[in-house]
Amino acid sequence: MKPADMSLxxxxxxxxxxxxxxxxxxIGAFDPWLRNFDLVLRTERGTSYNAYVVRGNRGVAVIDTxxxxxxxxxxxxxxSVAQYEEIQAIVLNHLEPxxxxxxxxxxxxxxxxxxxxxxxxxxxxxxLLHADSLPVTPVITGDTVxxxxxxxxxxxxxxxxxxxxxxxxxxxxGVLFSGDAFGSHVCDARLFDDxxxxxxxxxxxxxxxxxxxxxxxxxxxxxxxxxxxxxxxxPAHGPVLRETPQYYLRRYRxxxxxxxxxxxxxxxxxVFYLSAYGSTRAMAGVLxxxxxxxxLHVSLHDLETCAPDLLxxxxxxxxxxxxxxxxxxxxxxxxxxxxxxxxxxxxxxGKFGAAFGAFGWSGEAVPLIEERLRGLKLRIPLPxxxxxxxxxxxxxxxxxxxxxELAKHLTGKADHRVIDMATLA
Amino acid sequence: xxxxxxxxxxxxxxVSVPAGTRLIEVSEKIGAGITYGCREGECCxxxxxxxxxxxxxxxxxxxxDQVLKDxxxxxxxxxxxxxxxxxxxxxxxxx
Lengths: 425, 95
Fold this sequence. Notes:
The structure holds 2 protein chains of 2 kinds.
Chain A: E1 18-21, E2 24-26, E3 29-31, E4 36-37, E5 41-42, E6 47-49, E7 52-55, E8 60-63, H1 71-79, E9 87-91, H2 97-100, H3 103-109, E10 114-118, H4 121-129, E11 136-139, E12 144-146, E13 151-156, E14 166-170, E15 175-179, H5 200-211, H6 215-225, E16 232-235, H7 245-255, E17 268-273, H8 279-293, E18 297-302, H9 308-317, E19 320-324, H10 334-340, E20 352-359, H11 365-375, E21 385-388, H12 393-410, E22 417-420
Parallel strand pairs in A: 8-9, 9-10, 10-11, 15-16, 17-18, 17-19, 19-20, 20-21
Antiparallel strand pairs in A: 1-2, 2-7, 3-6, 4-5, 7-8, 12-13, 13-14, 14-15
Chain B: E1 3-8, E2 13-18, E3 21-22, H1 24-27, E4 47-52, H2 62-70, E5 77-79, E6 84-85, E7 88-94
Parallel strand pairs in B: 1-7
Antiparallel strand pairs in B: 1-2, 3-6, 4-5, 4-7
């Protein structure tokens, strides 16, 4: 038997829709026992899939749907406030299956509905519905849909947290339907931020896992959203934010803020390494010294004793990282992969990377690290340095040069080079 | 074989390439900041600004043109995984 949970009782609207503003209803579904979301987030408080209905004088708009397994709940709430023939618009702020699971059935039941989604969502929709002729209108910032006496307008807000994401604004009621932005994984039938208790940690945790890799996009979205006279933020997960919507906007601004860059601050390089016999450690040391002598702020970290989740903040603020690993059984060593597999939670584009390491007979670690760093969208302008067993003075000098040259790239002092493609490996 | 010169402005490297080379074939090898996702002209991750020499690139395919439109790409931007350099001097940088 599952434990009693105040989040489940009583069901708001007794299984029907819940009014969140004049002629605007929540028609979502509760998933109280979900304990892991998208394989990467812990959801010890479950979640909700929020969908909404907006009624105008001429028709009705449905904004988002729910995960497929919760379709019955969604349709029950929808039917309590609208008839399918009235549905003129289905707005998809985000196409991920937890918001589009009920879409195929909704399209079947609502014969007069047209889909409104972002231009970048249109090609994704094909992958979702596998149909060629759909009643779809791609929309961008400023486009509107008239529902009779009130209209929805759209804000193109990509990468919150998929390329397709957008927000939908109902001006007369001051409601912003924000998709996954401003959400939290909290399942609580009390539904509103002023009723559900303290969920600040859940709000921040959700940001850290869904929005943090896209901070620049969050800032751009906030520039569009901030001028709106918002009275209610209606996200696709968790509480509807009606009491202090401005608090959540400010909180996103704080969480998405760029790291402080005091004027004159040296560019930062973090050197992470592992070393079984001291060789890769020696290489790390001279690389760091070379970079430091060329004007970088350099920090060395032995991965044998560092927990990767503590290093993410450092990497996020770094301008470059260099990773050193010996090759063991034809591979880089696991703590290196633990670090590298943690880095997709932050924005990395534009940072520089480099790899180095000692090896016994094959030395695959360095190219494997370089490949992963490229996959993470770092720039790798310089070939990595490898040394067999004990680095020679020449190999250590090459490591030092790697640090020096990396510093030149970071400080814009790299020499302009002209090369022939045939010379590239 | 006819050659062309592509300058990757963000890393300060000019590469002499055979006519018909796609930007993707060069940019990663020299560590330029153009990043890739699907590598098949669909995801728009590799959107690249053509600073000069736009006319020296092969015209975009119907598919690339549609992807550029869907992603609201500004003028003189191309997908690095698709754009082929035909001749002359071309300067590019990450969008």
